[in-house]
Design a protein that fits this description.
mainly beta, 8-stranded antiparallel beta sheet, two-stranded antiparallel sheet
Length: about 120
């Protein structure tokens, strides 16, 4: 309780907002219902699933289900990559953004993303 009063005293005396000790995470939700944690890197944006994602691979009798944490890499030049889904592209519009990889498409409706590319990759 003593520490709480000390923090309140600092806020009142400096008249400056104090940022939370833990930085808030930015979470995106795909149209499939999967949640992804956002981070930036020098090459663009990275979305890493919070929980394992199941994807089908193969065809016919060789079809398998692979489950694991999924990482989507969205490049500054509108390129995209995911280990399970391969290479592709991504783009955005007013209604959200979409990642197209191989034969799959992952939509993120009504959400915006910053890939450090000055709003390139418009649909």
């Amino acid at each position: 309780m003593k520490n709480l009063f000390a923090v309140a005293a600092v806020i009142l005396t400096t008249n400056q907002p104090i940022m939370a000790l833990a930085q808030m995470e930015l979470i995106y939700v795909s149209s499939e219902g999967h949640q992804y944690r956002f981070s930036n890197n020098p090459d663009g944006a990275v979305l890493e699933s919070l929980y394992p994602v199941a994807r089908f691979t193969g065809t016919g009798a060789m079809t398998q289900v692979i489950t694991g944490i999924e990482t989507l890499y969205l490049g500054r030049d509108c390129d995209a990559f995911a280990k399970m889904l391969g290479n592709g592209t991504w783009s955005w519009a007013n209604g959200g953004f979409v990642v197209e990889l191989g034969a799959g498409r992952i939509g993120f409706p009504r959400q915006e993303i910053d890939a450090n590319n000055d709003l390139r990759c418009a649909m």
